[in-house]
Amino acid sequence: MKLICSQQTLSNAISTVQKAVSSKTTLPILKGLLLECVQDKLYLIGNDLELGIQSCIDADVFDEGSVVIDSRLFGDIIRKLPNAPVEIYTDNEFNIYIKCEFSEFKIKGLSPEDYPRLPDVDEEMFYQIPEDLFKNMIKQTVFAISQDETKPILMGELLEIEGDNISLIAIDGYRLATKTGQINNNVGNIKVIIPGKALNEINRILAGDEGREIKISFTEKHALFLIDNTKIITRLLEGEFINYKQILPKEYNLRVKVSTKKLLSCIERASLLAKEGKNNLVKFSIRDDIMLVTSNSEIGNVQEEISISLEGEDLDIAFNSRYLMEGLKVIDSEEIYLEFTTNVSPCIIKPEDGEKYIYLLLPVRISSSR
C-alpha cells in the first residue's frame, strides 16, 4: 500500500472515525483504524462492533492495499505534522511508514484480515432528511436518554417515520422529549430504536447546514447514516419501546405562558442553592400573573419572581432543577407554554410557536410544610 494525501484532510478524517474506536476494548485490533486504498481513495474505518464509522478522502494511490494502525498513535502523529502532503506506505510485514517534509515515522501495524468488516446495509432504499432538521431533533431529545444500564432499551431513542412525519423520542423514566419534523417519505413507515451513543456521535459530525440532506437506511438489526463522504453504521436496540403516546396528557387544568430566557435565568439562579441541597429542587408557586420560583437548602434560600400569562387556577409544584434547565436550553422559541393538571401530574413544556416539540417532566412531591 502506498499513497500521498493532504495532512489536514487526513487529520479531519481520523478525528471523525476515531469516534467509533473504544479505548476500553480488550481486543488490540479494535484499538486500531483500518486504512484501505482503492483506486484514488483512502478509506478509514473505526469499529467497536456496536458503532462503525467510515470516512473517505481523496488520495494519490500508487499501490492499493490495506493495514490496521493504532488509532490514538496515528491520530497524534498526523495532527502534529505540518500542513503538507503526507506519504504513507507499508511493507510485507505490515510496518507502516509515514513521511511528511522532514519527519519520518515507522509504526508496527496489524493484518487487516482480522479487522471486523462493517455490516452490509442497502444504500439504495433510503430516507432523505434535511441535515439541519435531524441535528436539531437530536439536540432537543438526546439529553433525555436514560443512563441506567439496567434499562438498555431506554438508552436509545425511538425513531418513528409515519407518512411524511419523522419523530425522535427519548424517555428516562422522569421525563420525555419528542421532536417531530417533515420529510418526503418514498420508502414506507418504520419504527426503530437507535442507541444514544450513535446519535451523539452523529450530532457531532453533522454541520447542521441548511439545504443539505443526510440519507438513512435500515436492515433488521442495523441503521446506516450517509453524511457526505462519511458512513455511520450502528446496531439497533432490540425490544419494545414504551408507548409514549399513552404518557402524554390529553388535557390540562392550568396553562402558563412565559418568556423562555427569563424562566431559564430564574431557574439557573435558583439552582445555585438547589444543588447544595439533597433533592436539587426548585418550587413554582403560580398566582394570577406571577410565578414565584424558590429553592431552599441548609445554607440558605432564594426567591425569584417572573411575570406570566395564566389560564386556570393557582398551583404549587416542584421539579428537579437540572431536568428543567436541560429542557429549556434546547427550546429556540422566545416564549413557551407550561401545561399542568395537578401538582403530582406530569408537566408539559411546549414552544409557543408550535407543537413540533414536547418536553414532559414529572414533578417532585413536596410536603405541605415546605
Write a short abstract of this structure.
This protein is 18% helix and 43% strand. The protein is α+β, with helices and mostly antiparallel strands. The relative contact order is 0.11.
Verbal overview:
This protein has 370 residues and is an alpha+beta fold. It folds into three domains: 2-114, Roll (DNA Polymerase III, Chain A, domain 2), CATH 3.10.150; 127-245, DNA Polymerase III, subunit A, domain 2 (DNA Polymerase III, Chain A, domain 2), CATH 3.10.150.10; 250-361, DNA Polymerase III, subunit A, domain 2 (DNA Polymerase III, Chain A, domain 2, Roll). It is built from seven helices and 26 strands. The strands form four sheets. Strands 14-11-12-13-26-25-24-18-22 form a nine-stranded antiparallel β-sheet. Strands 6-2-3-4-17-16-15-10 form an eight-stranded antiparallel β-sheet. A five-stranded antiparallel β-sheet has the order 5-1-7-8-9. A hairpin with a 3-residue loop joins strand 3 (41-47) and strand 4 (51-58). Helix 3 crosses helix 4. The radius of gyration is 25 Å and the shape is elongated. The model has no long low-confidence stretch (mean pLDDT 94).
CATH secondary-structure class of the largest domain: Alpha Beta
The CATH topology of the largest domain turns out to be DNA Polymerase III, Chain A, domain 2
List unreliable stretches of 5+ residues.
none
Percentage beta strand: 35-45%
CATH structural architecture of the largest domain: Roll
* Shape category: elongated
Supply the number of helical segments: 7
Distance between the termini: 71 Å
What does the main sheet amount to?
9 strands, antiparallel
Taking all Cα atoms into account, the compactness measure Rg is 25 Å
Overall mean pLDDT score?
A: 94
Structural class determined from secondary elements:
alpha+beta
Tell me the count of domains: 3
Classify the helix fraction into a percent range: 10-25%
